[in-house]
Amino acid sequence: MAIIKTVRGFTPSIGKDTYLADNATVVGDVVIGEGCSVWFNAVLRGDVNSIRIGNHVNIQDCAVLHTLYEKSIVEIGDYVSVGHNVTIHGAKICDYALIGMGATVLDFAEIGEGAIVAAGSVVLSNTKVPPYTLWAGVPAKFVKNIEPTQTNEINRKIAHNYQMYADWFKENDKL
Predict the structure, then answer these.
(1) Is 70 exceeded by the pLDDT of residue 54?
(2) Among 85, 112, 118, 119, CA closest to 97
(3) CB 53 within 8 Å of CB 35
(4) Confidence (pLDDT) at 159
(5) Which one, of 66, 106, 100, 108, lies nearest residue 82 by Cα?
(6) pLDDT (tens digit, 9 = 90+) per residue, 134-161?
(7) Secondary structure (DSSP) of the chain
(8) What pLDDT is recorded for position 152?
(9) Residue 175 CB partners (closer than 8 Å, separation 6+)
(10) What pLDDT is attached to residue 160?
(11) Looking at CB atoms within 10 Å, which of 1, 42, 60, 124 has the fewest?
């Protein structure tokens, strides 16, 4: 069973049909929408400030979401994919964005709707990634524009796939 902890009087709120892996950790001022999945060893640490996650978001294995004490917050829109080993620290991720494996997104950065942050990239504090663009590198820089229909389709497909994967685990938990 996932670790869900109340801290400083804040108890996480978990939306309907959301899957939490057995060793996922959700702490404090965290609100997760409907149809999400939080995978193995992922940590959502809302102990020092709030984390807000929309609907149909997948937060993959070993991802870490955290904030600056009383300064930054994490906001994640709908149909966002947060890849394996991603760190999001006090940033805003808009609808349909994709944060590639091992990427880091730092405080007060904003990832626009449908944007893609390539695997291993580091988005520095206060960086504004425009909607429907691909950014890559350390530090992350603009690579190219992306067609909105393409990125929305990709991210919606990933979100649906992760919902399917979560259903496999939910079925197994009933045995």
Answers:
(1) yes
(2) 112
(3) no
(4) 83
(5) 100
(6) 999 999 999 999 999 988 888 888 988 9
(7) --EEE-BTTB--EE-TT-EE-TT-EEEEEEEE-TT-EE-TT-EEEEEEEEEEE-SS-EE-TT-EEE--TTS--EEE-SS-EE-TT-EEES-EE-TT-EE-TT-EE-TT-EE-TT-EE-TT-EE-TT-EEPTTEEEETTTTEEEEE--HHHHHHHHHHHHHHHHHHHHHHHHHHT-
(8) 82
(9) none
(10) 86
(11) 1
The residues near 90 (Cβ < 8 Å, ≥ 6 apart) are: 49, 66, 67, 68, 71, 72, 73, 74, 106, 107, 108
Q: Is the dihedral of CA 139, 140, 142, 144 positive or negative?
A: positive
Residue of 64, 92, 62, 91 whose CA lies nearest to 77: 92
Which pLDDT belongs to residue 154?
87
Tokens of 94: 């808009």
* Per-residue pLDDT tens digits for 55-106: 999 999 999 999 999 999 999 999 999 999 999 999 999 999 999 999 999 9
Peptide bond into 148 cis (omega under 30): no
Q: Which two tokens stand for residue 68?
A: 């600056």
